[in-house]
Amino acid sequence: MCPLRLIPRIFLFDDDELAPEVRAQRVLNKGRVPALTRYILDNPDDYVFSALTASVDGVMKFVGFSDEGPGMRVGQLHIPMASRFLINDGQHRRAAIEAALRENPSLGDETIAVVFFYDAGLERSQQMFADLNRHAVRPARSIGVLYDHRDEISQLTRLLALKSPIFKDSVEMERSTLSAKSRKLFTLSALYSATTALLQDLKLDNAETARTISEAFWLAVDELIPDWQEVRSRQLQATEVRKQYLHTHGIALHALGLVGNTLLRDSLDPEDWKPRLAPLGQVDWSRSNPDWEGRAIIGGRVSKNHQNVVLTVNYLRQQLGLKLSAEEQQAEDAYKRGDR
Fold first, then answer.
1. What percent of the chain has pLDDT over 70?
2. Going by C-beta distance under 8 Å and a sequence separation of 6 or more, which residues neighbour residue 265?
3. InterPro entries this protein is in (predicted)?
């Protein structure tokens, strides 16, 4: 266990300017550091980090608390401060710890676990990095939303998925993709992205208000997409709806959330925004609709990169008579020119 105040002082990471073949780790992605830093500062009593892994170019000596029995495996590790410490895994955590300490020096007495290896040279350090990351698998985004109890939008999304009459029993809670035979219509991660888009920059009083507005909006959308209702009443199968229509896919939910956000910014009163949403009922969501090609569908496959989301939003805005932003108009002009 190493005090956080020592982490920035003794642990080094490779110079970003070195060529990859003479480094022992990836280049530090500075864009990741602020979020990690904010996570530490916002949760000083219960943040969780996995152990750092480091190589030590120096003489290490372990002194157990006893010469025999279980105590011989517990003790102190003595390392000369003149030694060179190189992080093999955890350079972003190290950078975040350094940044957090600048804002809150009292965190310096906290500790983090470190696994130490003798430094056996560059080749061994590179192999350690490869081995440590060889089988690393990022968890599906849906299960991340399901288990995140800090993020208010995650909490709201779970409530919608579990309690809302629209989404109850229709949301895949763990995986971020649906298998061909799945009986679900949506993924939790798609609903999270859509609800985040719906509520962004709205000045809401509290979480209950956010829930009320979200439920009202998705209920209004549900009334305009009869296929969702027919799946719930078992008149249609979810597999067939997903195969034939676009409105259950993540790109469509995200686009609906963004369009809804525009309406809600003008007024939170359903009496104002619901009539403006009504033309949504005339949208042809079938994947065979040629209007979707190049917008939400590329070569017969649904695509959800940023440009496709913008073009899908544009289409819905046009159906609802809403004005395009400058960025959206630029993307629309490029689409019409065939620059896609």
1. 95
2. 201, 202
3. DGQHR-contain_dom, DNA_S_mod_DndB
- From 266, 270, 267, 261, select the one nearest 316 (Cα to Cα): 261
Specify whether the CB–CB gap between 216 and 156 falls below 8 A.
no
Helices 207-224, 250-266: axis angle to 10 degrees equals 120
Terminal CA-to-CA distance of the chain, rounded, Å?
53
Helices 91-103 and 33-42: crossing angle, nearest 10°? 50
pLDDT, one tens digit per residue, over 14-41 is 555 556 655 666 778 889 999 999 999 9
Question: What are 86's two structure tokens?
Answer: 């190189």
Across the 340 residues of the chain, what is the mean pLDDT of every consecutive 10-residue run? 89 60 71 94 92 88 86 86 84 93 94 89 79 79 90 94 94 92 95 96 90 96 96 94 95 96 93 95 94 91 91 95 91 81
In angstroms, the CA 229 to CA 273 distance is: 22
Q: How far apart are CA 36 and CA 17, in angstroms?
A: 23
Burial bucket for residue 288 (CB in 10 Å: 0-12, 13-18, 19+): exposed
3-state SS track over the chain: CEEHHHHHHHEECCCCCCCHHHCCCCCCCHHHHHHHHHHHHHCCCCCCCCCEEEEEECCCEEEECCCCCHHHHCEEEECCCCCEEEEEECHHHHHHHHHHHHHCHHHHHCEECEEEEECCCHHHHHHHHHHHHHCCCCCCHHHHHHHCCCCHHHHHHHHHHHHCCCCCCCEECCCCCCCCCCCCCEEHHHHHHHHHHHHCCCCCCCHHHHHHHHHHHHHHHHHHCHHHHHHHCCCCCHHHHHHHECCCCHHHHHHHHHHHHHHHHHCCCHHHHHHHHHHHHHCCCECCCHHHECCCEECCEECCCHHHHHHHHHHHHHHHCCCCCHHHHHHHHHHHHCCC
Distance, in Å, from the CA atom of 273 to the CA atom of 100, rounded to the nearest integer, reads 43
Question: Rounded mean pLDDT of the chain?
Answer: 89
